[in-house]
Design goal:
Length: 94
């Protein structure tokens, strides 16, 4: 992920990105947003806002989990709603 002149990462955004790096098994790996929440000691709303900001800056992407049977209560609580979809996964660009 590259910091641009237009978007300097906040502390929470940087913590989200670092948590993603620690939790991912390979580059551009989809990670459950709930796992990011579990990994960080920030208010859930701050984590959600940071992920949304990173998506808007083009550094990250979110997507729904296609197999909804595997979703836990934590997944539902951490979901980011984009339009009519609840997104449970995040991926960061290199």
């Amino acid at each position: 992920m590259h910091e641009t002149e237009q978007h300097e990462l906040t502390d929470v955004e940087q913590a989200v990105y670092l948590a993603y790096l620690q939790l991912s098994e390979c580059p551009q790996d989809w990670i459950r947003i709930a796992r990011i929440h579990e990994h960080l000691d920030y208010h859930p709303d701050d984590i959600t806002d940071a992920i949304i900001n990173l998506v808007h800056s083009g550094d990250a992407h979110i997507a729904p989990e296609s197999n909804t049977k595997v979703l836990t209560d934590a997944d539902h609580d951490a979901a980011i709603h984009a339009g009519s979809e609840a997104c449970h996964l995040v991926l960061f660009e290199d």
